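Why does residue order matter? Because the sequence determines the fold. Keep that principle in mind as you read this record.
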Amino acid sequence: QVQLVESGGGLVQPGGSLRLSCAASGSIFSIAAMGWYRQAPGKQRELVATISSRGSTNYADSVKGRFTLSRGSAKNTVYLQMNSLKPEDTAVYYCTSAAHWGQGTQVTVSS
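Structure:
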């Protein structure tokens, strides 16, 4: 069964850091691009970052220089390192790959 499972969300103060993880079951994910989207209350889901099977990354302008997306050695796991977090980063973060979506993990940036 194809499944994407996110973890690592939580509450953090502005300026803090969090690392999100997404573990994908199914061999297709080792050769598929993977990515993160986020959706804040009352807003549309938006792209955060993507990574190709070869490791090429793409970031939304709003997170460039603060977020880093990487793949694990097993290729079917990705990590989103989020630094210098801002209140506007508050959202549910979703992992996606090969037309599949995870259940989402809440990130709240607040003092």
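DSSP finds no helices and eleven strands in the chain.
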